[in-house]
Structure formats: structure tokens, C-alpha cells
Amino acid sequence: MKVVIVGNGPGGVELAKQLSEEHEVTIVERETVPYYTKPMLSHYVAGLAEEKSLFPYPIDWYEKKGIKLLLGTTAKRIDAEKKVLETDRGTLEYDVLVLATGAKPRTLKIPGWERMYTLRTIEDAKRLKGAVEREKDLLIIGGGFIGLEIAGNLSKQGIKVKVVEKMTRLMGLDEELTERIKGELEKHGVEFYLGRDVERIENDVLVTDKEEIPARVILCSIGIVPEVSLAKESGLDVNRGILVDKTFRTSKPDIYAIGDCAEHEGIICGTAKAAMAHAKVLANTLKGIPDEYDFHFRSSYFKFGDFPIAIVGELTDRGEWIDSETKSFYRDEKIVGVVVLSDVRKAREWEERLRSTR
Predict the structure, then answer these.
(1) Nearest-CA neighbor of 329 among 318, 342, 321, 313?
(2) Rounded-to-integer distance, Cα 220 and Cα 144, Å
(3) Please, is 271 exposed, middle or buried when counting C-beta atoms within 10 Å of its C-beta (0-12, 13-18, 19+)?
(4) pLDDT, tens digit (0-9, with 9 covering 90-100), for 166-210
(5) Same domain, 74 and 178
(6) What secondary structure letter does DSSP report for 101?
(7) One domain, residues 6 and 71
(8) What residue spans of the chain are helical by DSSP H?
(9) Structural domains of the chain, count
(10) In a 10 Å sphere around its CB, with 0-12 CB exposed, 13-18 middle and 19+ buried, how is residue 115 labelled?
């Protein structure tokens, strides 16, 4: 079976690993470098990881695995009837096509927006690293997990970090959890400006609806936009992401989508961990092993500087602290989700328990 994967990120590479022993696998990737671990980019920017450590799989690894890697190649159009992928370097026939096209960083189109950095690729990371090392200062627009990871890592290194967030809560969590996260990062000097609307950038100042904040280097970290252009132009059903079922089938036969570009019932998972889990489910499906992905069960593990946090299961409006580090969330009288602070081992125990009761 010829399997063509568009995208060499965590989902695409994991799927190739799972299938390459039994099938002919080709990866099409528009970037010119092999797979690198995007969750480690903030560590690289902070000087906590060397560039070479971001690349776990050199080119000869693909060759040894029997994976054909086409770097610097852009997928242009899918002919679903003929089962052909058109690229800027020729056409590829497939039996199964998998879109693992990832996402782009969401940006703010405000006056002065061209001053902002984003962090999605290794080239983004190099540019941001250079600016931060030069200025010893960073203002982050966005209080999601990527922004908080960067804030935690850079503040540990003595960089002055400010976080500006439109909402009054971080990561969509409740007020109590927001205060715990804020408190931990404030110990390292991170300043928070919550509930702010960003209006413009003037010289070295970010202007919000409440104040003017000095900012020599500004990172926009307000989420992602799934990369759906190839799917949309090829006639697949899309919304924010490429629409899939629980086995990652799209609206066209023998075409699947996984990772940040995939959407199911309004949910886009948006983490490398989820993309790799998608790949494992899809690999089973393609091997004829019944499997499906539970999009409603969250399994996210983060570390903001020295502060680990895990979000497991479903978060509801009713939450209660079980102990000083664990907040549980209920539907009726049943615990359906937890947020665990500091103790990752406890979080994994909770994940196993919650999955077994679904």
C-alpha cells in the first residue's frame, strides 16, 4: 500500500514510523529540514536546549526506516478520483493520503503588527532567540500554554517577561487555577496584564485599552489557525479545520487528516502529544485494527518553567479541590476531569483511572 503523508510534524512522523515496516511511505514537507520537536522550541529560545538537540531524526534515519522524505516540496492539489497528489516537484500516486499539514500562528492585525514575532518554526525560534538575547526583554501577547511555557523558561534565565491576555483567566481555566499559575510564574518575575484589549504598537510600547506597556520585543502567541488550504482547494469539507470522524476519515475516500489541521465536532486538539496519539489510532485503522480517538477527553501536560501542570479529562463548571495540588471536575456526582499541579505521576494515575471509567 502506498501511503503519502503531507507534513513532517509529530503526527506525520509518528504515522510514518508506525506504517513504514509494512507499507511504502512517502512524506511531503515544505520545510527544508527534517523533523524537529516543536514543543522544545521555547527551551531553545531560552538557551536551555541546543539547536542540534531539537532534531532527533537525521536524514539517514528516514532512509533506514524505508521512509521517502521529500523536503522543500509543497503539496498543491489533490485529485481524489485519480488518487494523485500534485506537488511543485511532480505528482505522487497514493492508495492512502494523510494530511498532517499542521497550523499557522494566529496573528493580530493591529497598527504596528509587523513588529511582532511568532513562534511556530525553527526559523521563527532563531529570530526570536536573537532578539531576546539582544534586548533581555519579552512581552507575550496571549496567556495560552505556549505563551506560558515561554514565559516560564525565559524568566528562569533572568529575562524580563510580561504577559498580556485578553481574558481574565489563563488557558481557559477557572479563577483559582489562574491565580495558582500566575503566582508560580510571578515568583520568577513574570508580570501579568489580564483582561486587556491590545490596540496598537508604537515604537517600543504596546498600547492596551488600560495602559501603555514598554515592550522592545513582542511575541504574538494567541493560538493557531489550522492549515486547510490544500484540503479546501481540493474539495474536502472544512470548517476551522479539516472535518474528520473519530477514525480521522475526511469527506473524500482514502484521505485522512490528523494533528492540528483536523477538526471533529468543533474540537481541534492543538498539541504535539495529541497529534502523535492521532497517528497511532490512524495506524491501527489502516492496519485493520478497530480503534477511534476520543476527542472529548483532554490529556495535556505542560511545564511553565519549574511548574508542571496537567489537564486530564473533561473540565466542567463544577470543580472542587481534592488536595492542595489536585482540582477535580464533576458531571452529576462523577469525576470526569482533573487539573493536577506539580505531580505529573499523580496526573498519569488519574488519566488511567478516568479513561477506564468512560
Answers:
(1) 318
(2) 11
(3) buried
(4) 999 999 999 999 999 999 999 999 999 999 999 999 999 999 999
(5) no
(6) -
(7) yes
(8) 10-19, 41-45, 59-65, 122-135, 145-156, 175-186, 229-233, 272-286, 344-356
(9) 3
(10) middle
Nearest CA-CA partner of 124 in 28, 215, 57, 220: 220
> What dihedral do alpha carbons 246, 277, 281, 250 form, nearest 10°?
40
What's the grid cell of residue 193? 496584564
- The torsion region of residue 168 among left (phi > 0), alpha (psi -120 to 50) and beta comes to alpha
Q: Examine residue 301 and state whether it is found in any structural domain, yes or no.
A: no
pLDDT tens for each residue of 304-326: 999 999 999 999 999 999 999 99
The mean per-residue pLDDT over the stretch 133-158 comes to 96
Residues 6+ apart with CB under 8 A from 46: 150, 153, 154, 156, 157, 159
CATH code, 262: 3.50.50.60
As to burial, measured by CB atoms within 10 angstroms (0-12 exposed, 13-18 middle, 19+ buried), residue 344 is: middle
CA distance 45 to 123: 11
List strands edge to edge, sheet with 298-304. 298-304, 307-313, 334-341, 326-331, 319-323
Contact partners, residue 19, CB within 8 Å, separation at least 6: 3, 25, 283, 286, 287
Q: Summarize the confidence of residues 247-266 as an average pLDDT.
A: 98
Write out pLDDT tens, residues 50-103.
Answer: 999 999 999 999 999 999 999 999 999 999 999 999 999 999 999 999 999 999
Cβ count near 352 (within 10 Å): 10
Using the predicted structure, report yes or no on whether residue 358 has a pLDDT greater than 90.
no
